[in-house]
Amino acid sequence: MEKELLELTVNGEVQEVAVKPNDTLLEVVRDNLGLIGTKEACGVGECGACTVLMEGRPVLSCLTLALDATEQEVTTIEGLSTGEDLDPIQESFIQYGAVQCGFCTPGMILTAKELLGRDKNPDEAEIREAISGNLCRCTGYAKIVEAVQAVK
Amino acid sequence: MNSNRLPRLKYHSPKTIEEVLKIKQTFADDTVILAGGTDVIPMLKRRNVSCGHVINIKRIRPLKQISFDEKEGLRVGAAVTLREVADHPVISNAYPLMGKAVQSVAYNQIRNMGTLVGNICVDNKCTYFNQSAFWWQSRPDCFKRDGDCCYVIKGGKQCYALSAGDTVSALIALEASLAIVGPEGEQRLPLEDFYTGDGKKPQKLDHNGLVTAVLIPPPISGWKDGFLKKSQRGSVDFAIATLSIRLRNNGTGLEDVRIALNGVSSKPIRAKGAEQYLMGKPLDDETISEAARILLGETTPLSSIGTSVQVRRRTIEAMFTDLIETIEG
Question: Scanning A68, A88, B213, B229, which has its CA 20 to 30 A from the CA of B79?
Fold first, then answer.
């Protein structure tokens, strides 16, 4: 299969990558760009671990063809912090013990980022609805919900 | 074998509907339409479908539009996402039934990617068919895999994969139709007539056709409506059933009523018998339970996707009683 040159905007940086038509955005972000904060778990859109923001909205990078991501603003978990300066949501996850094994965390935080962008003060039901596609097998969600609620 | 790797494919990203038709004509059944991709990509990954050409329709401007006109009603293009539908002021104001149905689909990320027309055109689902290629090495192919048996209905003479689109019952109750463009131009087809009942090829759409939009008649005042979806776990499971009811009550009895179901059988069901029975009657307990009995008679629920026939029947009955009482509330 021939590779195509794709212009991707990830975390504000424009990059050129050679991709195959059957490469997913997830594969390109991890393998070509080395941004391994984005995780692959189920690979078929059931778990939310591969969540990234496209044009500010959470989507599943495992179900997005890399070629479909052209001309779109992509944000991965690496785009939320600057060096040691974490995003307030990341700080809150640490403070509230919302991270255990950590595999769901990048997707969870990006989903929360979008929610808090459109609703500064979501109630528990709204938070649970927003993150219902991000599966966590460790925390039982209570601490995650608390962490999101505590972000000011 | 990494089962999460997509097969080799050729990617097309046409800018016009005409280009889509040309690609379809050239490669016929070796093509698949990619809009949200939330159903197509997992099916390709599991090798449930095989096709060499993926046609992305998200760059076709007219397909990205929602338009509303008081005479013509609502038109939602084939590349409009469920999130865009849910967020549109006309839908929340004039089509609350549709808004509820759209919000019931899967979860946040899927609604940001998946489209309304994609939910209408979603392939039927099956406990057996939707397994991986590796899993299928262990048993003979079923009808949907071009074999000659059905594992859902043992001894069945056709494919009984389940019709699964969560928005379909609401759209049928709203008397929606589809705009389908083919080499002969645009055709309109009532959504109710779009489904074949054969799980192997569940929709009346040939290789040359493209569904470009769903059309919903203008809202009429005086109707009340409601939507219910029941599934084992809210966001991740396919429905046990989805039910939509619209009705107009003049105080002494029902003047008009629409009842539609999906997720229970190999095609959506418009319960015309129950509708007819309810006409002119006041909604008392006896009438409602008789209507529920007629509704179940018009439905042939399947044992599939983790739910038995018995549970499906009881769930449908309870949903119907609940929903009609809530609407009349």
Answer: B229
